[in-house]
Amino acid sequence: MGESVPAHDRASPTTDRGPFELCLLGGFSLRDAAGQPVELPTRKCELLLAYLAMPAGRLHGRDKLAALFWSDRDEEQARGSLRKALSSLRAALGPQALGGDRDAVTLDPAALAVDAGRLASLASNPAGIVEGAAPVWRYGEFLESRPSASAEFSDWLTFERTRCRNLAQTILEGMALRLADAGDLSQAQSVGQRLLAIDNLREESHRLLMRLYARAGERSRALAQFRGCRELLKRELGVEPSQETVRLSRQIASDAASAGDEAVRPADGPGSPAARETAPSWPTERPRGLSIAVLPFAGKSDGEQDFLANGISQDIITELSRQRDFLVIAPQSTVGYASGAGEAGIAARDLDVRYILAGSVRRGGDQLRVAVQLIDASGDRCVWAERYDRPAQDVFDLQDEVVRRIIANIDAEVRAAERESAARKRPENLDAWELFHRGMWHAYRFTRDDHQLAQGHFERALELEPGFSLPYAGLAYVCLSAVTWHFTADVGQTLGAGIAQAEKALALDAGDAFSHVVLGRLLTFVGDRPRAAHHLSMAINLSPSFAQAYFGMAQLHFWSGRPREALHHIGQAVRLNPRDPLGSMFMTLQSFCHYWLDDSAAAEAAARRATALNARETWSRLGLAAALVALGRAEEARTVIAEARRMDQGLTVASFDAVVGRCRTICASGSIQPCGRPGWVETKRPAATCCGPFFRDCRTDQNER
To answer: Bacterial transcriptional activator domain: from which residue to which, for each copy (predicted)?
Structure first.
């Protein structure tokens, strides 16, 4: 049963009043069939109608709608507010516009024509773009200036704004190309300018205008567009144009020189003032790194606190400077800026960096409080913030501890922000640096499809920058993941290929910690422990805050039969970065270590923490199964193994042993036979404690399944 319909609604059927015109691009506007404006009583009603209309016809639960728009009220009040808002929509649109029952609501697609809804059909129909795309000339931000109803609604609003923006860009780009093909270059340029106005940081739009100007013979204007693009990206994002944009500008400049274009040809040779004014400059440095400025920490204007605040900020600069891919601004350049979020944007623009670290030191009695925040100036948002409250007995010990923790968090959060930023951008707009981070974003998702996408991004990065070391390390990491997650049939060949790629990375940059970690872990897999230890130690020396270096060292110790030492290094990794992309693997290895140290309860707890961090990980379930068997809970273990096998049909006893580090053969009877390989620890455990019996027909001659 639905809600009762007011009498005035029943007197106004939809057929007499609709369809209505709902405009959501550039704000909110509702008009009836005669073109007259229709007012809704509240902003919440407007937002509710927009939500139901994108797209209309979808069924929405009433509880979800109530929580989405009235999360500040209790459940009964929220439901009452929803009923009132729906009654207002029926009064405006007619009783048949809304359908559903007491649990759900839907909006009749025939009741409304929505401008934002037409974008998708226009974008998918290139043949009708020029004739039917008039509404995009009035394109504005989806629900511009409308406040968000809740955090969840804000997420939806962000998604729709991005989707509509991308669709409008596709439409305008198609219009410009069709106009250019039809010979109307002036109108095509006008459309290109409108396209650029939607997002002036979109390099693809700049390139389209450059091509349109060059096609019209206006090469000087095309190169001016490039210079404007380069200056804008430098000012707003602190980056250079992508290699694709640079190559296009070079081609245009070359064509202009060949054509004898006086407007762009240097009058007095390549080094003359005229040449410097007209010819574009090309970035010749290595692919960009992570640029950061540490503002002076604020004290309380007394000697001790100012001394500590200055010492902490100086130590952070020193430690960050040890990271080879961090460009850290010298303290002399930051001394004039106050420490606070308000100064971040100004400092970032003046110092030409993307990230700003600001902080303060306060003392109250015997307690010291150090507060820090990391700000991404490109999006004017706080990436990470933390507060450290410590006893103030030993200021120097406090300083060392806080600096270590801050460095670890900056390192982790900045790299995570780079991966997320690259993942949000359109693939064709990515340069080599961003392609590497986008590849790592996919690599850390640990699925077969993402594994292939990661490999493609690394290979594309090397096409753009053959001398860039990190994509080689990324390809090596792909090989490492392929073995770990059973994405390869030839383990030996894949490990060999990964080692070769990691060695290429280090040949290009011997000081990169990530490359050392990947090579060290690969060498651990093939049993070359001395070389593995060398590279993992190098990684820790180069980047003492890199959690994955300690994880690699923990793997090496575990596979060498030293689970207690492995636990120490895992603890270091977790303390340095509890939110690391490999966090579930940290916990899984911790579970294996506890298992082999006969602490099955701790092994179970660590395995459960691992599955909570990554529900798709199979190894944590195998560790959990082994712990459950040791605890006498065999039926639970069988259920866990079944879950693991559903997630990974290629899971075998041999593959489990390869990661756990106990290489053995398990017969159908469950007896354990050490394989006899040198350096591997043999188990004396009874067969009942092995997970092997839970695999179906686990004879080696039946693929150990």
So the answer is: 114-253
Phi first, then psi, for residue 391 (nearest 5°) are -60, 145
Q: Which residues of 115-144 are buried (b: 16+ CB within 10 A; e: fewer)?
A: bbbbbeebbeeeeebbeebebbeebbebbe
- Residue 342: how many other CB atoms lie within 10 Å: 10
Strand order of the β-sheet with 367-376 is 326-328, 290-294, 355-364, 367-376, 381-391
3-class secondary structure, 580: coil
Distance, in Å, from the CA atom of 517 to the CA atom of 482, rounded to the nearest integer, reads: 16
State the CB neighbour count (10 A cutoff) for residue 696.
9
Measured distance CA(484)–CA(384) in Å, rounded: 31
With b for 16 or more beta-carbon neighbours within 10 A and e for fewer, the 389-404 pattern comes to ebeeeebeebbeebbb
Helix (H, G, I), strand (E, B) or coil at 291: strand
**C-alpha–C-alpha distance, residues 591 and 580, integer Å:** 17
Q: What are phi and psi of 108, to 5 degrees?
A: -65, 120
DSSP state for residue 167 in the 8-state scheme: H
Residue type, 143: L
- Residue among 492, 495, 460 at smallest CA distance from 478: 495
Amino acid letter at 146?
R
Q: Any bridge partners for residue 298, and if so which? A: 360
| Domains in the chain with CATH codes | 1-183 (1.10.10.10), 290-400 (3.40.50.10070), 576-705 (1.25.40)
Token digits of residue 628: 């459950």
Please tell me the number of Cα atoms within 13 Å of 344 on its side-chain side.
Answer: 22
448: CB partners within 8 A, 6+ apart:
485, 487
How many contiguous H segments (helices) and E segments (strands) does the chain have? 30, 13
Going from the C-alpha of 504 to that of each of 436, 483, 519, 534, the distances in angstroms are 16, 20, 10, 17
471 CB neighbour count, 10 Å cutoff: 28
Give dist(CA 536, CA 515) in Å, integer.
10
Task: Give Cα separations from 648 to 468, 618, 622, 623, 655 (angstroms).
Answer: 35, 7, 12, 15, 11
Does the model's pTM come out above 0.85? no
Task: Please give the radius of gyration of the chain, using alpha carbons only, rounded to the nearest integer.
Answer: 31
Could you tell me which residues are beta bridge partners of residue 672?
666
Residue 673 β-bridge partners: 665
CA distance 64 to 48: 12
Q: Which of 406-415, 417-426, 608-617 has the lowest average pLDDT?
A: 417-426
More confident: 87 or 296 = 87
The torsion angles phi and psi of 465, rounded to 5 degrees, stand at -135, 85
- Helical pair 583-596 and 563-576, crossing angle rounded to 10 deg: 160
Q: Kindly report the length of the chain.
A: 705
User: Angle of helix 563-576 relative to helix 395-424, nearest 10 degrees?
Assistant: 80
Structure confidence by residue, pLDDT tens digits, 542-597: 877 788 999 999 999 998 989 999 999 998 888 777 778 888 999 999 999 999 99
Work out the angle at residue 547's Cα, subtended by the Cα atoms of residues 541 and 549, and round it to the nearest 5 degrees: 50
**Alpha-helical runs (H) found in 425-447:** 432-443
pLDDT for residue 270 is more than 70:
no
**Cα dihedral 572/575/576/581 (nearest 10):** 100
For residue 549, how many other CB atoms are within 10 A of its CB? Answer: 29
Residue 87 has pLDDT above 90, yes or no: yes
Give the number of C-alpha atoms closer than 13 A to the C-alpha of residue 167, restricted to the C-beta side: 25
Task: Mark out the alpha helices in 367-512 (DSSP H runs).
Answer: 395-424, 432-443, 448-464, 469-484, 491-508
Cβ count near 83 (within 10 Å): 14
